[in-house]
Amino acid sequence: MSEVIYYEVKVFLIFALYGMFLLLGYDGIRAWRRAVRHGVWWIAAEDGLFWFAAGIATFVMIFIYQDGTLRLYTAAAVGSGMYLYSKIFSKWVVKGTAAVLCLFFRIFSQILKKIDDFCQKIVAKFVKKD
Questions:
Q1: Which of 83, 19, 79 is closest to 54 using CA atoms?
Q2: Helix (H, G, I), strand (E, B), or coil: what is residue 18?
Q3: Cα(8)–Cα(36) distance, rounded to whole angstroms?
């Protein structure tokens, strides 16, 4: 095969991987939402910021690899990567990440509770002395 075909195959694979990473990032947001409840406005702000950043990153990728020209096969590669990731990994990533975040928050809240109890004991000693 010619070098042009090799380059296009390489670009296709890079953009497919990029699509997977896009959804991996969004799954991080979805897991965060499962661990910490959000209101409608907060969700809208997160989505807006994420997709704005994704749009800029996509523009940069297209500018670097395709000299700013949007080609159908790169868009298909991003879509294919997103589809494959969502069908193969997405459910496990969201569940696993949400579980880890919930565990982290549970441990962190227990540590804060112990610190609060300790501080209350110290304050109670000073209040009793007066």
A1: 19
A2: helix
A3: 42
Distance from CA of residue 98 to its chain's centroid? 11
39, 83, 92, 20: CA torsion to nearest 10: -90
51, 114 contact by CB (below 8 A): no
CA 65, 71, 74 angle in degrees (round to 5)? 65
Per residue in 5-21, pLDDT (tens digit) is 898 899 999 999 999 99
Which of helix, strand or coil describes residue 89? Answer: coil
Please give the DSSP secondary-structure letter assigned to residue 1: -
Cα gap 124→4, rounded to integer Å: 77
Instruction: Pull the structure tokens for residue 76.
Output: 């298909």
pTM for the model: 0.78
